[in-house]
Every structure is written in structure tokens, then in C-alpha cells.
Amino acid sequence: MKAQVEQLKMCIGGNWVNREAKIDVYNPQNNELIASVPSASKDDMLEAIKMAEEGVKIAANMPVHERASILYRAASLLEERKEEFAKTIAEEGSKTIREATGEVQRTIETLTISAEETRRINGETLAFDQRPGSENRVGYYYRFPIGLIAAITPFNDPLNLVAHKIGPAIASGNAIIIKPASVTPLSALKLAGLLEEAGLPRKVLSVVTGKGSEVGDVLTQHEAVQMVSFTGGYETGKQISAKAGVKKLGMELGSNSPVIVLKDADLSKAVDSTVSGSFSAAGQNCIGVQRVYVEQEIYEVFQQQFVDKSKKFIVGDKLSEQTDMGPLITEGEAKRVESWVKEAIDKGAKLLCGGNRNGAFYEPTVLANLPNNCTLAREEVFGPVVILYEVDTLDDAINRSNDVDYGLQAGIFTQNIEHAFRAIHNIKVGGIIVNDSSDYRIDAMPFGGVKNSGLGREGIQYAINQMTDPKVVCFNLSN
């Protein structure tokens, strides 16, 4: 046990405040108390919104060069403190130190891209004289910030997913309030401190740590909020959309991602990519591989190689450079995954490897012969579990890929370009990765899904489009 638990304050419009009520933050690996943060009240959130209403005007009046400079400086400061932030991510969450270091690097890129995109928020001229009688009219449109963004972020990427809300908001001249996941609030608070150090004006950003049941509705339903940007589960997203009122919604709600492996695939590459895509971040990854459809001719050899590689995954201490996979975010989540696997086995699924839990740790688990009437077949497991299926044809694999209520990303391994394009055009997802697993993303690409996987797109340029509105300007000239 640490001699002294870190006490962090929350940021309300640039004021760093403490509260008697606390949220304790535990390392899921050993349940060690590592920090505590304020547990915000309804009044705290209302105060953050009040200050943000002033921040809206401040942010909108910041010139482009100032927005860009702040974001560039923040990226530079984060580069200097990469090890510190990586350790925070690894300690408060599920990621290994290698995965956490990768997340910090991605966050640097997210902030840098946000800085670059400040210069590309442009409009265009409009041909008003296309309408008879409008020959003397000229004009254009430009994009302006919508105002106050409410952002709710999950635990699985506690730094970069926060940056994916804050970066585009600052770049586009908006104010933003972040409500981070209660189990992983430390990275968000430290990022807010970094942005303050980089010169972000007060009142533009708040990070309010509190229980969703206490402050979530206050934030998302407030009339001063023009957009809710939410990353999390479908049921919570559905509740937010039902209550939020008339405002913009951007939602990334998870998936049950499929990957297709055809008989002409590079087998070694397919195995390596799908195993990594299944178990990185302990499977707590919205684009992680959950279903693998393998063409019949290569199924047996693929299954054997996949299971062999899965068994070699090193599970253990998150801070060790040799560790491949750490624990789930809580023991409760590990127990949930355990119960889903047990249900599947009880209904006839075959356990190929894994299936054992130790506290919050759950072994990389591979199943086959999964019946359709179990939870794992339909829902997002958000844990280190993957299901292998044998299929006869590409069309069968496509149909089965589509046979869930989610559609975020998919992958296909093939050397046949016609097969690749058939999958591209027929799998109902927001992104498809050819000759890699579903678990691939760059921070500049449009990211989001269809069906129950969400609304809108993230990725800096595309988030900025949602955080701004076009304003038309038309001149009626005398000559």
C-alpha cells in the first residue's frame, strides 16, 4: 500500500477545486488505492456550465493562430512528460505500460492534428446566380463554433479519447466540459492541467469528476449545451439521446467486430493481427476483434495457429515491458465476462483455450461452435474473448458479419481484390480494414459506425464539422 494517496482537484472553468465527497481510484491489478478525486455535486456541474457560458465567448474570439499555438504547446509538453502520463494510464486503467505509451503517442498526434486543422476550417463561395433573378447576388458560407460541448468519456482510452473531444473543440473555437469515467479520471485531469500550462484561457475547459447518476443528466440536458459527444455503451447512449433535447449528438457506442479470413489470405499475418486485435487492452476496445469467420479450407490450420498464439500471450504486471495483457478494469467486469463465457459453454460452445479468472484478470479466451442464442453471439463482450466460425463462402461470412445490431469496423484478409471490394460494399460498418483486423485506426480518419454503433464521426476534421455550423452570407449588389 502506498504511504500517501494522491489527492487531485477537479477543474471548474479553470478553478481547481476540492470537495469533501470523494471518488477513490484503484489500480485494477491489485485493488490498490492510488488516488482520490472530488465527487462533484449537481451544483458543481451547474457552476461549470455557468462558467462555460462565458468561456463560449472567450473561445469564439480566440484567433486561429492562438488556438493552434495552444494545441501545439500542449502536444510538446505531453511529449516531454510521456513517461509520466503513460504510467498514469497504466496504473488507473487496464493497459500495459507498452499500450499506455502508445496511447500517449497517439494523444500527441491527436493534439497536433487538432492544431493543424484550426487552419482548415474554411467555407466556400456560392453561385447565387444559378437562380434566375439572382444575377446581382454573390456570397459564401463560413463555419462558426456552435458554443458549448458536453463530453462524456470512457475508461478504456482515458487520455486519447478525452483529447479527441477537447482537441477539436478548442480547434473550432468552442468551450467544453468533460465528464471522464469515474474509474479513470486522472489522465483527463492531468491533460486539463497541461492545456492550462499551454495557455488555454480560463472558462474554456472544465473537467468535472463525478458520478454519472449525480451530474450526467445535469450536463447533457442543460439548454446551454449545444452538443453532446459521448463514447460508451449503447444503453447509456440511448438514454442520453432520449433526454438531451434538441441539440447535436455525436455518439460512439461500441461494436461486436467481425473479421473474415479467406483461403487465399496470408495466414501468418491473419493470425498475428487477429490475436492482437482480440486481446489488446484486455479486449476492452470498441474495435477489438470478437468474431472471426474463416473459410472452410483453412479453418483447422487457422484455428490451431490462433489458439497456439493466444496461449503465448503473457498476462500479468501492467508495468512490465514483457506483459502483453493486463486485467480488466474491475473484478466485476471480469466476473461478467466469466458469466458470459459460462453461458456460452453451457449452451454448447467449445472452449479452445482460456476461460479462467483470477480477480480482475481473465485469460485470453477462444471459443468455437458458438450457438446464436447466447449473449456472446449478439452483444459486445468488451473483454478478452473471441469466437472462431467456419464458413463455406465469402457471402456467408458477409451475411453473418451483418447479423448483429452493431456496425463499427470490420476486417478482411484476402489477396483477391474482387473479394475485398465485395466485402467493402456489403458489410454494414463505418470502416473496413483490408488485410488487417478490425482493430486499426489513425486519429485523422473519420471514425464511427452504423446501426447501434453510434451517430456521427470522430477524427479531428470530422468532429470539427460537427462542432461547427455553416453560416451563409449573401450580398445583393446594386449592379
From TrEMBL:
Pfam families: Aldedh. Its EC number is 1.2.1.97. Transmembrane segments: none annotated. Residues 16-473 form the Aldehyde dehydrogenase domain. It is an enzyme of class 1 (oxidoreductase). Keywords: Oxidoreductase. It catalyses: (2S)-3-sulfolactaldehyde + NAD(+) + H2O = (2S)-3-sulfolactate + NADH + 2 H(+). It comes from the Bacteria. The keyword Oxidoreductase applies. Gene3D superfamilies: Aldehyde Dehydrogenase, Chain A, domain 1, Aldehyde Dehydrogenase, Chain A, domain 2. GO terms for molecular function: lactaldehyde dehydrogenase (NAD+) activity. Belongs to the aldehyde dehydrogenase family. PANTHER family: ALDEHYDE DEHYDROGENASE. Part of the sulfo-TAL (or sulfo-SFT) pathway, a D-sulfoquinovose degradation pathway that produces sulfolactate (SL). Catalyzes the oxidation of 3-sulfolactaldehyde (SLA) to sulfolactate (SL). This is 3-sulfolactaldehyde dehydrogenase.
